[in-house]
Amino acid sequence: MFRRLSQAAAARSTGWFGIIVPAVYATLVIAVTLVVLADSLFVAHDDASLMGVWLILVTLPLSGASLSGLSGLESLLGEMPQPLKSVLFYLATTGVGLVQAWLLRLATRGRLRESDVRSRVPVS
C-alpha cells in the first residue's frame, strides 16, 4: 500500500502534499463526527449540547447548504421524529465533509510529471 502511495506521490507535481492534505481533512471530519456522536449518545446534559456546532464548523461551507436542504425536506415531509433528524444531521454533515475532502484531493493533486506522461502514452 505504501509503495503505491509513494508511486502516486512521485507521479504528481505536488508530491505528498496532494495526498496528505485531503487525508488529514477527511480524518478530522471523521474524528469530529465520532466525538460529537459520542457526546450526544453517552453524556447527559441538562440543556442542549452545542457539540454539533463543531461538526458544522469543520464541514463549512457545504454543510450550510446541506442543513438548509434538510430543513426544506422537513417542511416538505412534515414533522420528523427526533432520532431521524439526528441521523440525517450526521449523515448530511459527514457526507458533505467527505465530499469536500475529495474535492480538496482534486484541487491539490497537481499535474502528472512529464516523465510519467510520456511513459503512459502507448507507443504504436
From TrEMBL:
Keywords: Membrane, Transmembrane, Transmembrane helix. It comes from the Bacteria. The keyword Transmembrane applies. The chain crosses the membrane at residues 15-38, 50-67, 87-104. NCBIfam families: memb_SCO4225. This is Uncharacterized protein. It comes from Actinomadura rudentiformis. The lineage of its organism: Bacteria, Bacillati, Actinomycetota, Actinomycetes, Streptosporangiales.
